[in-house]
Structures are given as C-alpha cells and as structure tokens.
Amino acid sequence: MMLVILGTFLGIIFGPSLFILVPYIRNYFAGAICKSKAKLNGKVVLITGANTGIGKETARDLAKRGARVILACRDAAKGEVAACEIRAETGNQQVIMKKLDLADTKSIRQFAENFLAEEKELHILINNAGVMLHPYAKTVDGFEMHLGVNYLGHFLLTFLLLERLKQSAPARIVNVSSLAHLVGRIRFHDLQGEKFYQRGLAYCQSKVANVHFTRELARRLQGTGVTVNALHPGTVQSELTRYSSVVSLLWKMFSFFLKTPQEGAQTSIYCAVAEELESVTGQYFSDCQPAYVSAHGRDDETAKKLWKVSCELLGIQWD
Fold first, then answer.
1. Where would one find coiled-coil regions in this protein (predicted)?
2. What is the pLDDT of residue 141?
C-alpha cells in the first residue's frame, strides 16, 4: 500500500518521465558492484552463514572464480541445499557444507578441529553470519545472543583458524559489520544485557564490536601477510529481519529501495578479492569504498579492553 501511495505521489510530480527515471533510481539503491575479475583457483574460502542471503551470494561468486568454498552453516539441511545449488550453477564441485553453530563454543571448536584436519590452507575467511533484533536469549555458553553469534563466535573461530591463515598468506579476513555500528556502544557494565535489554541496541553493540575487533586484529597482524577489514553490506532484503514482524513488513513495503542479496554481497566480495586491497588492513568499507567509522568505533582503548574481556569470556589467551 505504501509503495502504491509513493508511486502515485511520484507519478503526479514527474508524470510519464517517472518510468524513465525508475531504472536510475533502482540502480542508485542497488549500490556499487565489485569490478574485480580476480580468479581464485587453488584458493580456499570459508564463509559463515552461507546458506542464505548475502553469505550465499558471496559463496556463489567466489565459487565462480574457482575457489574451494566451505559453507559453514547452522542449519545443515539448508546449507546442503545451498551447496548443491551453487555446485550445479557454477560447475565447481569444490563447494562443501560444514555444520557450525556460532551460538555454541563447543560447536565452534569442533568445527575448527575438523577444518584444520581436513584443510591444509585457508586464504579467505568471511565472518558473515549474524542475527538481528533477536528477542532476549542466551547462547549455549550464556552470552547474549547478538553478542555471542555476531561477535564472540567469530572472535573464537578466527582465533582457532588464525595460524592456518598465516601459513597460507597472503590471506584475508572479512568481517561483516553494519552501518548500525554508528550508534553502537560497548556497555562493559552490562555486556550481556542482563540489567537492560533493547534488541536494536544489542544488535548495534555487536556490530561496533565487529569494528573494534577488525581494527585491533589488524594492528596485531601487521607484518604477517594477513589482512582484516570490515564492511557494511547495505540494507538488504534477507531473512535477517525474521525476528521482527514489524521490520519484516517494512522491508516488504519498501523492497524497491532495498538491495537484493546479490547486490548486498558486492562489498564482501570486493573485500575478499579486490587486487587494490592486497595490503589494506584495518579499514571499513561500504559500497566497495572506504566509509566513515564512528568515533566510538575508532577508540583504540575500547578496542583493547574489549579484546581482553572477550578472551576472558571465551577462556582463551590471544596475545
């Protein structure tokens, strides 16, 4: 209904010329396209949450480039369907699904152990999976769901796979963050949202945590041949809104102005393959170009403190 009203309003203003403008308007909201023609034959790529949305489209693109692509998925059945679809479309038989539940550190550790036993190289790690607007809940290990899945799960996974990335250098780590990081704050006094919980703010906290993680990890990886960058994919039509009926409805009403999953995957692909980013690290991108990071996201002391707290929560030593 809203689109009908909007269309009528624009039709009154622009008249018949509106039909000429529509493709240009749509292209504007679609955003930039990764123009790199880089091939990935012989490269190993791992993508979390790759059974749907931008993760699946990223996997599809990198498979077309010749990479061996591992889809790390919580839902094994959906993951296998996605892997079969990508294999059939691309002709690349090196597209494999592996089960991974980022809400369970035992699952993460088991996944990493199996991966290291089976894969001798890892050139690109894309930390893509996430939840948004989830009602208050905790992971298996007692972490608030957004923080646990979007941030801590990927923090632990990266830690467990880092030596393989270093051995495979040059290698890249790509962290999917969000424009929502701009309003995110790390609430050290109530990190798990036990005193106060608002799911939008919890999501924003997890996304600024991704930015802090990216910047601090980049600092620590200087000289190793492993780069790490974060990105905002854009506002995308995806299953990410499934926990909010209101937002899901709004997404459907204004779908014309949202990116498709393929369009939303472009900056992830860009960060993974663009030749000009070979030595670029610790940056944040949107629409395949550097983007603004909030003042809070640039706070190095907060990043260092969050790193220390994260290690304590996960029971690891990462110096």
1. none
2. 98
Helices 199-220, 153-167: crossing angle, 10 deg rounding: 20
Find the mean pLDDT for residues 149-164: 98
Which of the residues 24, 28, 151, 203 is marked catalytic? 203
Contacts of 120 by beta carbon, 8 Å cutoff, 6+ apart: none
What is the structure's pLDDT at 259?
85
Contact criterion met (CB below 8 Å) for 103 and 153 = yes
Residue range 218-250, pLDDT digits in tens: 999 999 999 999 999 987 775 555 555 555 555
Q: pTM, whole model, 2 decimals?
A: 0.89
- What's the CA gap between 65 and 128, in Å, rounded? 19
Span 274-298, average pLDDT: 98
Amino acid making up residue 148: G
Contact 32, 288 (CB under 8 A): yes
Residue 203 annotated in active site: yes
CATH superfamily of 41-233+260-313: NAD(P)-binding Rossmann-like Domain (3.40.50.720)
The C-alpha atoms of residue 125 and residue 58 are separated, in whole angstroms, by 12
Sign of torsion over alpha carbons 260, 262, 268, 271 = negative
Instruction: Give one word for 256, left, alpha or beta, with left for phi > 0 and alpha for psi -120 to 50.
Output: alpha
